[in-house]
């Protein structure tokens, strides 16, 4: 195998790794929670189903894990522990960036 082919293969592998790592990085967003109001946050997708994590300095980290199309369950990270959020979240029909919990009358959004 020639040196050119090795270098070319190495460049292709490096480019692929960078592309995958960039897509997994957090993105700037504007968030809203019933408890915290509006705040700038970081949004990170955590799987292909649409589960995500939002975080910001001075605020708890929220995670919604998709349970099925339009339904999710969540938890909040308070320091070193994750606390399950009661009830099930349902994707808002009015705004697809929002999830409502009809059992607790709470809302979580990330734009």
Automatic annotation (TrEMBL):
Superkingdom: Bacteria
Write the protein's name: Uncharacterized protein
Organism, as annotated: Mesorhizobium jarvisii
Question: Source organism lineage?
Answer: Bacteria, Pseudomonadati, Pseudomonadota, Alphaproteobacteria, Hyphomicrobiales
């Amino acid at each position: 195998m020639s040196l050119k082919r090795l270098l070319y293969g190495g460049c292709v592998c490096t480019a692929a790794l960078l592309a995958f790592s960039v897509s997994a990085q957090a993105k700037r967003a504007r968030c809203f929670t019933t408890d915290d109001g509006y705040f700038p946050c970081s949004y990170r997708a955590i799987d292909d189903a649409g589960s995500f994590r939002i975080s910001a300095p001075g605020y708890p980290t929220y995670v919604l894990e998709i349970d099925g199309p339009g339904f999710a369950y969540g938890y909040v990270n308070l320091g070193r522990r994750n606390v399950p959020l009661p009830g099930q979240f349902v994707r808002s029909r009015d705004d697809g960036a929002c999830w409502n919990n009809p059992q607790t009358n709470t809302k979580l959004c990330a734009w």
